[in-house]
Amino acid sequence: MTMTDAETSSPAAPPAPRTRARFHPLRVTDVRPLTPTAIEVTFAVPDEIADAFDYAPGQYVALRATVDGEELRRSYSLCRPPARGTISVGIKRDPDGRFSSWAHEGLRPGDEIDVMSPQGTFVSKASTATGHVVAIAAGSGITPIMALAADVLERSADARMTIVYANRSSTDVMFVDELADLKDRYPSRLTLHHVLSREQRAAPVFSGRLDEERLRLILSRLIDPASVDEWFLCGPFALVEVCREALAAAGVPRERVRFELFTAGDGDAPAQTGGARPVRVRADEPVRSIEITLDGQSARVDSPVAANETILAAALRVRPDVPFACAGGVCGTCRARVVEGSVSMTENYALEPDEIERGYVLTCQSHPTSDAVRVDYDG
């Protein structure tokens, strides 16, 4: 995928409303090393399903594969600006990650795996990109920022972008050549700060861990929060929380801050199975009645109160095709609308406040609190 050299000032189309996510088999066309522990995987998108893979910069896809006889699903951000016929993701290998290890060791051009249509709300809310956008990322958190930065800088000659990118060392920097190319293409409008925790840099502020103290220095000396129109934060939970707190303390309005979490690892059981487990309903125990609507068809399942099942786990027992990916409250793939009854949601890092107001929940994190609950995945 390439970017044009011409700069335009045409407004960006607003991201399309969320639609029912579906898996499609896609062929791998390239597996490119980025660092000793990261690769970029590119897929060909056939013309007949190209519309299903239209996406906004910052969105992600879920990948599904059978590894050692078990179905695994993982979500990865799209790292290139949208181009019809192809999509690319960055995959960083986690030492305990079954899926990422499998991808690094066995994924080759010509292989075919299931890829879900793009999802996610880590996208710009601005109708035009004419202001100052700042991204703070760590490790593989740079992946969605690559697509966002290219889009922001290409769409308007008046836009500015600042990227603060934290890594352990220079060998861990993903997309190092692409970042350098962007800097060469937009030297006056892209500011790039590399923060390395295990290497000494010329400026002390860029040497060491990107913690609260270092963030305060960066915000006081290098970035004026009042000049920033949108903030994008992407990385592990701890870093994102530190950034959000620092920005709040600096007076940045919450609605200007977009964030996406990258989990510390990808080997936990809930992310592999959606939390589904064998449940046997006894005739003498209290249950919650859960009805789901998916693809226009309804199904009902009884969930024992004592089992404390999530809506997703119960739904998978009657509809194995219910959409999910991370099962950790991060990606939002399992989103559905509660149309009857009530639920409690344990975690939520994916839904916007207005979505919650309209009754949407993450079914992987939602437990029924009324005797009967009805959720709609199509709504």
Describe this entry's structure for a reader.
The protein has 379 residues and is of the alpha/beta class. The chain folds into three domains: 23-116, Translation factors (Elongation Factor Tu (Ef-tu), domain 3, Beta Barrel), CATH 2.40.30; 132-261, Rossmann fold; 276-376, Roll (Ubiquitin-like (UB roll)). The chain is built from eight helices and 18 strands. A hairpin with a 2-residue loop joins strand 12 (287-294) and strand 13 (297-304). It is globular and about 70 Å long. The two termini are 34 Å apart. The model is unreliable at 1-18 and 264-275 (pLDDT under 50).
Report the end-to-end length measured between terminal Cα atoms: 34 Å
CATH architecture of the largest domain: 3-Layer(aba) Sandwich
Q: Radius of gyration from the CA trace?
A: 21 Å
Number of domains: 3
**Percent of sequence in beta strands:** 25-35%
Structural class: alpha/beta
H/E series: EEEEEHEEHEHEHEHEHEEHEEHEEE
In short:
The chain has 379 residues and is of the alpha/beta class.
What is the topological layout?
Blueprint: E1 23-35, E2 38-44, E3 60-67, E4 70-77, E5 86-92, H1 98-106, E6 112-116, E7 132-138, H2 142-155, E8 160-167, H3 176-185, E9 190-196, H4 212-221, E10 230-235, H5 237-249, E11 257-261, H6 269-273, E12 287-294, E13 297-304, H7 311-316, E14 335-340, E15 343-345, H8 353-357, E16 360-362, E17 366-368, E18 372-376
Parallel strand pairs: 7-8, 7-10, 8-9, 10-11, 12-18
Antiparallel strand pairs: 1-2, 1-6, 2-5, 3-4, 3-6, 12-13, 14-16, 14-18, 15-17
